[in-house]
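REVIEWER CHECKLIST
Item 1: Sequence provided? yes
Item 2: Single chain? yes
Item 3: Sequence as submitted:
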Amino acid sequence: MPKRPSLSSILSLSSILSLSNMIDSIKNYFLGSYAEMKKVSWPTKQQTINYSLLVIGLSVGLAVFFALLDFAFSTGITKLITK
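Item 4: Structure as written out by the authors:
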């Protein structure tokens, strides 16, 4: 029968220190991220609306362009095949 590890070997000092270092690293990551987010120059509400409308408009425009291109090519190929 295999020997079970003792509680003292499971909770060794190095594993506790390692866990403490990991928690400190995670805490420092979030504190650093928060500090960096405070430095960001955020767009105004109006800029966000304008950029969103621009993206939507370009997306619709490109969709129409590619739909017309697809229609033209499929019509052209169909006419070439049926002749």
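Item 5: Key structural point noted by reviewer: Residues 11-40 form one domain.
Item 6: Recommendation: ____
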